[in-house]
Design brief:
globular; about 270 residues; Rossmann fold; 9 helices; alpha/beta
């Protein structure tokens, strides 16, 4: 199958390599001219694509041309730019998708679409995405925009906190003081499982479905990051035990029912 993969970053690039191994032809995009050679060296057909609410830099039509599947793995970017119009970018992208050969869309979303509360609610795919933060609202709108089309089928994958060999949240939290929400459950997933789940969706042709994707073990934030920091010989975070913790627990029910997926990497 010819696949267009929009966003060959921390997840997208190793994912593309896995899909190449499985025999697919991959068109990969980056926003950086410097990374084009890296994509080419990996065996991808490289494109420089940059989305804006007002328009597109790069040949998006050629990037989508002749592909059957589009994987969208681009972050909303609201942390670096709180005024970013992510839903505007997705709307612009959708205009191009509907004029292309794309029949399937896989959108990489996040479990932040669900609200954190003091009760630590348990969310499955049957629960409504009720997050109220700007990032949550834009992700929810993007999901709905992509699902609402007669031209293709869209599958949504909501990943928990991502970690892998060169990336772990503890590196950010190490040595910090007054870290919030010590009693909140963690919701994490390893890079290897992110890739495995997307590969399984394509293999089983699981389209038109929304998946939560989180490892099914949820220690408290304080217990987990204290242990990981000790194991990595990092500064142990100091948690704010005075403020009430808010959080949630994510369950991946549809992942098990539809894909029969077995996680390959634990959180420890």
């Amino acid at each position: 199958m010819k696949i267009s993969l929009l966003g060959c970053g921390w997840l997208g690039l190793p994912l593309s390599k896995k899909l190449l191994e499985e025999g697919h032809i991959i068109k990969g995009s980056t926003t950086s001219m410097e990374k084009l050679s890296k994509l080419s060296e990996a065996g991808l057909i490289p494109y420089r694509i940059k989305l804006f609410a007002e328009g597109v830099q790069g040949d998006l039509s050629a990037f989508l041309e002749d592909s059957e599947l589009l994987i969208i793995d681009i972050p909303p970017g609201l942390r670096s730019d709180p005024e970013a119009n992510f839903i505007g970018k997705i709307g612009r992208l959708k205009d191009f998708i509907e004029k292309s050969s794309i029949k399937r869309v896989l959108f990489v979303s996040a479990t932040s679409v669900y609200e954190d509360t003091e009760e630590f609610p348990v969310y499955t795919e049957e629960d409504s995405s009720n997050g109220t933060a700007e990032n949550s609202l834009q992700l929810k709108s993007a999901e709905n925009e992509l699902k609402n089309s007669e031209h293709y089928e869209a599958t949504i994958v909501r990943f928990g906190g991502l970690f892998g060999p060169d990336r772990h949240p503890v590196n950010y939290l190490s040595g910090k003081k007054n870290v919030k929400d010590p009693k909140a459950p963690v919701n994490l997933i390893h890079l290897e499982d992110c890739i495995g789940i997307i590969s399984k969706i394509i293999e089983k042709e699981a389209w038109g479905i929304t998946f939560n994707a989180v490892y099914p073990e949820h220690p408290t934030k304080a217990a987990y990051y204290t242990r990981i920091a000790e194991e990595k010989n990092l500064g142990i975070p100091e948690f704010d035990l005075e403020m009430v913790s808010k959080g949630k627990r994510i369950e991946s029910v549809t992942l098990e029912e539809v894909l029969d997926y077995s996680f390959q990497q634990g959180i420890y």
